[in-house]
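Regression test case RT-17, inverse folding.

Input:
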């Protein structure tokens, strides 16, 4: 029989796990977006060396399982004398891995910007940096917000893997509670519902941002 009292009894522990999940997610979203922007600029750079680095970065981190990357940082680097705590490991690994997906999406969006728009800006004597900052990036972000939002939703779900490196985020906390109470059905059912509600709420926020950006763009025209 379903026992909801288990969830109520351990609500404090669940809240602590949620706080860690939220902190890791926010920091990783910021980090991955910054990494994505940097790698995207490398991909569209006029430098062949930067181009190779950018595309190589994307292909490399998109083709390595995330759990392998986490294990390398947490268990592998200590062999070289580099010790990183579980929280920092999660933020670092997620930022580096998800940054590759953000970079690829941004690169595609930038390269899809109408050449006539760029040429018109160049005809006014605008510098390359100004054109990117004022024209290309706003258009690229407007068109890429949905796919990037999907990547960020997946990032939040991927934080559950960090329980494998002793980080007691939401999933790690649920595993401990399930082991203590011998009530895995209630614990993991709550966890399932929580992730579902969390990601659905985020998808609604992303849709709202997408509509707002497109509405402003159309008004600007």
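Golden output:
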């Amino acid at each position: 029989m379903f026992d909801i009292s288990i969830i109520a009894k351990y609500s404090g522990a669940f809240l602590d796990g949620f706080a860690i999940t939220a902190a890791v997610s926010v920091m990783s979203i910021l980090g991955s977006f910054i990494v994505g922007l940097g790698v995207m600029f490398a991909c569209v750079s006029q430098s062949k060396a930067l181009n190779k680095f950018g595309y190589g970065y994307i292909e490399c981190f998109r083709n390595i399982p995330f759990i392998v990357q986490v294990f390398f940082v947490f268990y592998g680097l200590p062999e070289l004398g580099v010790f990183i705590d579980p929280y920092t490991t999660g933020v670092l690994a997620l930022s580096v891995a998800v940054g590759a997906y953000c970079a690829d999406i941004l690169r595609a969006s930038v390269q899809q910007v109408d050449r006539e728009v760029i040429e018109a800006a160049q005809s006014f004597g605008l510098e390359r940096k100004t054109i990117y900052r004022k024209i290309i990036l706003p258009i690229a972000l407007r068109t890429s917000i949905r796919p990037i939002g999907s990547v960020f939703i997946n990032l939040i779900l991927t934080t559950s893997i960090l329980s494998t490196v002793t980080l007691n985020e939401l999933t790690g906390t649920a595993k401990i509670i399930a082991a203590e109470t011998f009530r895995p059905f209630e614990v993991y059912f709550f966890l399932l519902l929580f992730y579902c509600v969390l990601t659905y709420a985020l998808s609604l926020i992303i849709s709202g941002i997408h509509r707002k950006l497109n509405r402003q763009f159309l008004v600007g025209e």
